[in-house]
Design brief:
alpha/beta; Rossmann fold; six-stranded mixed beta sheet; 6 strands; about 35% helix
Length: about 200
């Protein structure tokens, strides 16, 4: 089985360097171009299934990737980006000013602490784990999964035995294609391509 993970194209919020996950934002012109470049790299792959997060940046990226091809998009909230709660749409400096106590707790325990009304990194990992457990039960050859950077990093942690400590050991740029293979009970990262 080949799992093709694609991170959605760039958005204005990516450019502004703020925290956002649950905000539903559009692709920029650059984000559209990234999706088109990824489409060119994947043009010869025939997918059995296509999964997308609930966010329009993922759906739009998938639609560009699959232009002129007939695929049903399967929406799964387990591959939504992390919900940053009250931290949504804000940057480091603003958070330090508005939420000094919560910001400090978050910085001291990035795995378990949650922004107010948001999710912890562990909570995101647990839903991504549930998604991956279900995907590995399928008997398909090629699956496309269009999602978010935090989800893809969580997938890498899943591959590395579920150790969330590896979360910051990988990058995931907008438009990146990560090919994960599942063969003979072994799951591994086959390649990561920057577009």
């Amino acid at each position: 089985m080949n799992l093709y993970f694609v991170r959605h194209g760039e958005t204005e919020k990516n450019k502004s360097k703020c925290y956002y996950g649950s905000l539903d934002v559009e692709l920029t012109k650059e984000g559209i171009l990234q999706a088109e470049k990824a489409r060119e790299l994947l043009k010869d792959v025939s997918f059995n299934k296509v999964y997308v997060s609930e966010k329009k940046r993922s759906v739009n990226t998938a639609e560009i990737l699959l232009k002129n091809k007939q695929y049903k998009l399967i929406t799964d909230m387990r591959i939504n980006e992390r919900d940053f709660g009250e931290f949504e749409g804000k940057g480091h400096e603003e958070l330090k000013q508005l939420y000094p106590k919560e910001w400090k707790a978050w910085c001291e325990d990035w795995k378990n602490a949650s922004p107010p009304e948001g999710e912890s990194c562990i909570q995101v990992f647990e839903r991504v784990k549930s998604f991956m457990d279900d995907i590995l039960k399928l008997e398909d050859d090629n699956i496309l999964i269009v999602t978010h950077g935090g989800v893809i990093r969580s997938v890498y942690c899943y591959i590395l035995g579920g150790n969330i400590d590896y979360f910051w050991n990988f990058g995931s740029n907008n438009g990146d294609i990560s090919i994960i293979k599942y063969e003979y009970g072994n799951l591994y990262i086959d390649s990561i391509t920057h577009v």
